[in-house]
Amino acid sequence: MLEKVKELKQSFDNAIQSAVDTQIVENLRIEYLGKKGIVTGLLKDMKNLSGDEKKSFGQQVNQLKSEITDAISAKLAQLQAKAVEREINSMPDFDVSAPPVLERGSFHPITLVQRDCERVFRSMGFTVEDYSEIVTDYECFEALNIPKFHPARDMQDTYYLENGQLLKSQTSAAQNAIYKKYRKALIEESKPIKAVFPGRCFRNEATDACHENTFFQMEGVMVDKNISISNLIFFMKTMLSEVFKKDIKVRLRPGFFPFVEPGFELDINCLICGGDGCPSCKQSGWLELCPCGMIHPEVLKAGGIDPEEYTGFAFGLGLTRLAMMKYGIKDIRDLNSGNLKSLSQFTQDK
Amino acid sequence: MFLSMNWICDFVDLSGLDKLELIHRFSLSTAEVENDIFMRGEQISGIIVAEIVSVEPHPESKKLHLLKVDNGHEIVDVVCGAPNVKIGMKTAFAPVGAKIGDITIAPRKLAGFVSNGMCCSEEEIGISDDNSGIMEITDDIANGTDIKSVYEIDDIIFEVDNKSLTNRPDLWGHYGIAREFAVLAGRPLKNIDTLDTSVYSNLPKVDMKIEDPLCYRYTCIKVENITRNISPVNMRIRLYYCGMRAINFLADITNYIMLEMGQPMHAFDSRKVEQIRIKRFDKPFEFQTLDKEIRHIDENTLMICNGDTPVAIAGIMGGLDSEIVEDTTSLTLESATFDPVCIRKSTVRLSHRTDASMRYEKSLDPEMTDTAIGRFLYLLCENCKDVKIISALTDEYIYRYPEIAFDFDKKFVDRYTGIKIDNETILNTLNSLGFDTSLENTTFSVKVPSWRATKDVTIKADIIEEITRIYGYDNFDVHTAESPLYPVQISVEKNVEEQIKDILVKSYALHEVHSYIWNYYDELKTLGIEPEDNVKLINSTIAIRRNIAPTQLCQVKSNVSFAPDFGIFEVGRVVDGINPETNLCNEKKILCITLFSKTKSNEQLYLQLRDMIAVLVDDIKHKNISFEKAEQAHMWQHPKNLNSIICDGRKIGEIGLPYPTVMTKIDKKSAIVYAEIDVAELAEIKSDGIVYDEPSKYPEIEVDLTFRSDFFAPIDNALRKINSPIIKKTGVVDTYVDSIGKSITIRILFADKSKTLTREEVSAVTDMLIDMLKQQNIVMKE
Question: What residues contact A97, with CB distance under 8 A and at least 6 apart?
Answer without folding.
Answer: none
